[in-house]
Amino acid sequence: MSKFAFLVNSPPGNPGPVANNLEYARNLDEAGHDVVVYFDGQATQWIPEAEDDPDGVVHEYYQEAKERGLIAGACGYCASFFEIDDSIEAAGIALDGGAVEGASGPGDHHGPDVAALVEQDYQLINVG
């Protein structure tokens, strides 16, 4: 069994990469692999959209990934920047990192910790 971490960075307005990779994550999960999905950057905006728009292209793929427990989190720093952190938490998605007052730079508190994922033997798949 292999381990895969999907890092979704695709911005709103471009649903193909998000939908396709959520489907790939499901396929790998069905085949018995360990799969996690993280939403980062502009892609954090997909979570409220997928939650609220049942007719959207991403909705079905997102819901299935969520039901399977594949969505491991979203970047708290980016969610805070886009002012959607409350919506993401309300959807039951964990925020990794976050906006910290007095932080020395935007990269200081981003999530997920990709180095830790690699140390846990995850293969990183960046989707953007």
UniProtKB/TrEMBL annotation:
Entry-linked Gene3D superfamilies: DsrEFH-like
InterPro entries tied to this protein: DsrEFH-like (IPR027396), Sulphur_relay_DsrE/F-like (IPR003787)
Pfam family for this entry, one: DsrE
Domain of life the protein comes from: Archaea
Xref: SUPFAM superfamilies: DsrEFH-like
Designated name of the protein: Uncharacterized protein
Organism from which the protein derives: Haloglomus irregulare
